[in-house]
Amino acid sequence: MANSVDLNEPLGLFFQPEDIHVMRLNESQADFDARLGQYEGASGDEK
Fold it and tell me: What is the pTM of this model?
């Protein structure tokens, strides 16, 4: 069950750097997905 929220209060979202991915200009979704696939496990931190 979700907690209630006051819509007039600020809400914070927290991300780790590896959770943020940005598509390149004119990059197709397929190319983006393939590039992200290359990064998985590259740092040894597989999810």
Answer: 0.48
Using CA atoms of 27, 32, 35, 39 in order, give the dihedral in degrees to the nearest 10. Answer: 130
In a domain, 29, yes or no: yes
What is the rounded distance in angstroms from the CA atom of residue 46 to the CA atom of residue 12? 26
Per residue in 1-47, pLDDT tens? 677 878 898 888 888 877 888 999 999 999 999 988 887 666 555 44
End-to-end Cα spacing for the chain = 26
Domain range holding 20? 16-40
* Number of domain units in the chain: 1
Taking alpha carbons only, the member of 17, 22, 24, 23 closest to residue 43 is 17
